[in-house]
Amino acid sequence: MATSHYKTETFTSENFVESAGRRNVGESRCDTAIRETTEETGISCRLLPINMKSRLCPSEETDVPDGARVFKGVCEPISVQMRRIGEHEMKLIWWYVAAVNENKIVGKCENEFEVEWYGYEEVLEKLTFQNDRELVARAIKLVQSYYP
């Protein structure tokens, strides 16, 4: 979680938020999530495999009924959000579950952010926005079910 000092229409400088950024042309969503988290926090991370229910199609099958199924050990987005960033502009954010690469050197985070660490319960109290709390609660539940 990061405290933002970056002025936007979405949050003020005293808000506690997750890192999110823009995808580069040709960059995968997975690579974007890792790059943006590392750039904004200075912390090297990796996507964390989880078990999750999704309407995605299995990779090899083409004629699959449209319905939710459980996928095991996947690194897929757990949510997608739309945020207004201007009068006529929206930003799509694909949220993943990630873990810190403990063996990598921690760099400096972007000037607009300050990184703080919290336990599961405390982070849910600290996050400024209800939709962020719901998103993190879902991520915690997925992690705890895969890594008991």
Give a quick summary of the entry:
Helix content is 25%, strand content 27%. The chain has helices spanning 29-41, 120-126, 130-146, and strands at residues 2-4, 16-17, 45-47, 50-54, 69-74, 79-86, 89-95, 98-100, 113-115. Strands 2-1-9 form a three-stranded antiparallel beta sheet, with no helix packed on it. It has a two-stranded antiparallel ribbon with strand order 3-8. A two-stranded antiparallel ribbon has the order 4-5.
Care to describe what's here?
With 148 residues, this protein is an alpha+beta fold. It has one domain (2-146): Nucleoside Triphosphate Pyrophosphohydrolase. Helices cover 25% and strands 27% of the residues. The strands form four sheets. A three-stranded antiparallel β-sheet has the order 2-1-9, with no helix packed on it. Strands 3-8 form a two-stranded antiparallel sheet. Strand 6 and strand 7 (89-95) form a beta hairpin. Helix 2 packs antiparallel against helix 3 (130-146). The radius of gyration is 16 Å and the shape is globular. The chain starts with a strand and ends with a helix. The model is unreliable at 1-13 (pLDDT under 50).
